[in-house]
Amino acid sequence: MVTVLGTYGWALLVEHQAGLRVDSVVQAVVIASALGRVQRLFDRTDRLLACVVLPCAAAAGTELSTLIQRHPLAGDAAFVVGVAGAIWVRRFGARATRAGTLVVLPLIAVLVVPAGTVPAGGHEHTAWAAVTALAAVVWGTVVTWTAQRTGLVPRPPPAKVTTAPGAPRRRPTPSTRMALQMAAALTAAFTIGRTLWPDHWAWVVLTAFLVCSGARSRGDVLVKGAWRTLGAAAGTVVATAASGEFGPRSDTAVVVIFVVLAVATWLRELSYAYWAGCVTAVLSLLYDWFGQSPGDLLHTRLAGIAVGAVLGIAASWLVLPIRTEAVIRARTAAALSSLGDILETDWRDGQAVRLARARFAYRVEQLAIATAPMRILAAAPVPETVSARWHPDHFTLRSVTALRQCAEPVDDLTDASGSAPDALTTDPAVARRRAQVAAHALTVRQAIGRRPAPPTAADAAFQELPRPPGTTSPPARSAVAVLTALEVIDSQLDVLSVLFGPPPTLTSDAPTAAAG
Description:
The protein is mainly α. Helix content is 76%, strand content 0%.
C-alpha cells in the first residue's frame, strides 16, 4: 500500500501539471497495486527489466484505451492478442513469465475505467503514462528493498531454486494452452458483453480474465471461478448499499477505496473470495465516483460477473484443458527430483547441498499451491459420483502430506551431513542406505510418469559399498541422525509408491539394511 499511495500521489501531481485525464490516475493505481504484490519475487535483473517493459506496456495500454473507444473491433482484437501473448511467453522461463505479467498490468487498467466516462484522448498522454509507470517501478523498488533489508518481508528465492529444467514436449506446453484458453474466453466475453450490455461490457471481460488468469488446472479454475463469482456478488451488493453515502467526485469515496484495497491485499492470502469481493467493491465505488448509480447497475453487474465466470471456466475446461491430476503428478515428480538431488549430491559440497535443500522446499510448496483447490473441491457438498473424478484422496491430501513429512528429515539429513561430510560420505552403512533411498525415489518418479524403472536401479541400490582404506568412522551421532532421516524419507516414499503405482521391491530388506 505504500507503493500504491506513493504512485497515486505522483500520478495526481502529473495529472494536475500536465492536464491529463483521470484515467491516467486509475491506471497508475492499478499498476502499482499489482506491482506491489508481484515484485516481491523480483531480483535485480527483473527490476531492470521492469524499468523497460512496464513503461512500454503502460504507453501501449494508453493507446489501446483510445483504440477501444474509437475502433471497438480492432481494440478488442488487440487486447485479446496482447493478453494471450503475455501468457504464451511463459514458455521461455521464469523471467519471461514476470515480464509477461508486467505487460498485462496496464492492459487490465483499460477495463477498470467505466466506458464513456472519459473521452478518448490523443497521443500526448502516452509519454506521461510511461513516466508514471517508471515512477511506480522506482518507488516500489525502494519500498520493497527497504522492507527486505529490515526483515519485514522475506527475500525471494534465487533463480537457481525456482528455475525448472526444460524438457522437450510433443504436446502443447501449459503456457500455450493457457494462452489459447485466455484468447477463447476473452473473445467470447467481448462478443457477449458488447451484445448484451454495450455500455457495461467490461464486467464480463474483466471477470473472464480474472477466472482464467493464472489457472493452473481445471480444478484451480473451477474453484477460482466460484470464489470470484460469490465474492464479486457479495462485494457488489455491499458496495451498492454503502455507495449512496457518497456522491460523484467525493474525496471520502477515494479514501474508502484505498482502505478497501488495503484490506483486499491483506485478505488475499486467506482466500481468493475475499480478494474478489473487496476488489469488486472498489470497482463499484469507483463507478459511483464517476457518477454511475450502483443501484441501477446492480443486476447488470451481477449478470456480467456470472457470464464472465462461466466463460472463463468453460474455456479452461474445453480448450486444451490442463488436467489437475497431470499437474499434481508433474509437481510431485519435480519435488522427488529435488529430493534425489539431495541424496545424490556430494555431501562435501556444502553449497550444492544447501541449493538442493532449498529447491526441494520450494517445489513442495509449489505442489501444495497446485493441490489447494482440490482440498476445497474434496470438501464441497457434491454427489460422490462427481467428486470421484477429482481423486482428492489419492493425489491431493496424501501426496502433499507425504512430501511435507520429508521436510524435517531432509533438514536433519543436510545438517548432519554438514557436520561431518567426509566421514559420512565414506561410511558403508550410510552410503548403502543412501543409495537405496535414492533408487526408491527414482522408482517412484518412474511410476508417476507411468514408465518402468531402469533394470539396474535395484542392483545399484543393494550393491555393497566397501569402505575405502584409511578412512575413519564418522561420529555416531551424525550417522544415527542420517540413518534415521533416511528411514523416515523411505517410509514416505512407500506412501507415494502406493498412490502412484505398484510398490517397488527396493525396500524389502530395508530393516536389515538399516540395522547393518
